[in-house]
Amino acid sequence: NTFGFHTIHGRAPTLATGLKASRPDLMVWVITGDGDALSIGGNHVIHSMRRNVDIKLVMFNNRIYGLTKGQASPTSEIGKRTKSSPAGTIDTPIVPLSIAISAEATFVARTIDTFTDHIQDTLMAAGNHRGSTFVEVLQNCNIFNDGAWSAVRERETRDDNVLLLQHGEPMIFGKDRDKGIRLRGFTPEVVQLGVDGITEADLLVHDETAEDPAYAYILSRMWAPRFPVPLGVFRRIQRPTHDQLLQGQIDDAVAAKGEGDLRKLLFSGETWQAS
């Protein structure tokens, strides 16, 4: 009658995979952080995504190891001085959504802790998706990394630094809604509406259902100050889930060989009796 488990650090996706395989009727959520998911748990996250395990993985990203008192995490920016990098970290930070998209997650989204309506809508969409779900939540850590997301959190700056993705809508942003994103080949660029004859018709229209992950990957690489930071659903596609494919193999085996007898299996072949 439990509602959840505290697992070994970084290993939550493995337990969630087994749980979903044995109880496909359950909605399974994994709540994790940037250090937990992308460092010690990195491989587990990647493989749960590529297998399309029907779990909802929500990763809170504060660019620091907050619960273990302030070490650099895989998402800490280059030069970040922390307890584990007093001279500044020299490691290139991971872009979480790029990892999820490259691993073929079927639902990928980003939201932020202070946008209460947006985070609610994003999590509702994640809960309603069938398949591997990865949601990044940009979260402030006011103890060990205060202000990590100030450009997209603060009222004074967020309008010019946030792009709210809406499926089927042109990419418009800015305090006066006068800026947009245009795509030149595979390279996005910021343009000013009304300048040089640029209109909404010239802008990139968001398509979260694009099968090719390249489009969503391009969006995941957009970051302030060069670009606004996209928030919303980057990718939402459908393909058979891990538990569906697993059950299919079980059904095929039963159809071919019958229900089977566990006791008969255990005592077949080389067995012995302990006395």
Fold topology:
Elements: H1 12-22, E1 28-33, H2 34-40, H3 42-50, E2 55-61, H4 96-102, E3 107-112, H5 116-128, E4 133-138, H6 150-153, H7 158-161, E5 162-164, E6 172-173, E7 179-184, E8 187-192, H8 213-220, E9 229-236, H9 242-257, H10 262-266
Parallel strand pairs: 1-2, 2-4, 3-4, 5-9
Antiparallel strand pairs: 3-9, 6-7, 7-8
Helix pairs in contact: 2-3, 4-8
Give an overview in words.
It is built from 10 helices and 9 strands. The chain is an alpha/beta fold and 275 residues long. Strand 3 (107-112), helix 5 (116-128) and strand 4 form a beta-alpha-beta unit. Helix 2 (34-40) packs across helix 3.
What can be said about this structure in brief?
Helix content is 31%, strand content 18%. With 275 residues, it is an alpha/beta fold.
Helical/strand content category: alpha/beta
Q: Quote the average pLDDT.
A: 94
Number of strands: 9
Largest sheet: number of strands, sense, barrel closure = 6 strands, mixed
Number of helices: 10
Return Rg in Å. 22 Å
User: SSE string, helix = H, strand = E?
Assistant: HEHHEHEHEHHEEEEHEHH
Helix content: 25-40%
Q: What does the overall shape look like?
A: globular
What's the assembly state of these chains?
Answer: single chain
Q: DSSP strand (E) fraction?
A: 15-25%
Features of the shown structure:
three-stranded antiparallel beta sheet, alpha/beta, 9 strands, 275 residues, six-stranded mixed beta sheet
